[in-house]
Amino acid sequence: MRTGIGFDAHRFASGRRLVLGGVEIPWDLGLAGHSDADVLCHAASDAMLGAVAAGDIGMHFPDTDPAWQDADSLDLLRRVRNIVERRGARVVNLDATVLAEAPKLGPYRVAMCEKLSSALQVAPDAVSVKASTMEGMGALGRGEGIAAMAVVLVEQDI
Ligand code: MG
Prior knowledge:
Bound molecules: magnesium ion
Helix content: 25-40%
Strand content: 25-35%
Strand order of the largest sheet: 4-1-7-5-6
Number of strands: 7
């Protein structure tokens, strides 16, 4: 058994879609980024890579590479699952927290868990997404962007 941790943050930008955990959320602002800027998928991907000590998503999908422009981060997560599997490991569970003052994410939590569990090819109850706020503190508290953190447990063949 091995664990990995992931963290990511993106700032809000106008004229962008807001995509979290592969789910498009209706909101007047989206997140800025080279890909679709899905912070939840990015944090989950880094946790996966961390669990097998395989670098980070910036290394595998550099934001200087036009191939990843506007990339679907759920697809990047699937690619990361392949990297993990090639190392003889499979995901046991993913737990994540999204930090956002707004919008309220509760109504989208089940859909996000479904997208993530399907991308990771694990049972729905192996994925947990929680939402929290910064109680108005700091940049996230001022609503300048959204952050996500994730931990993943994998089981690796020996
Ligand atoms: Mg990112």
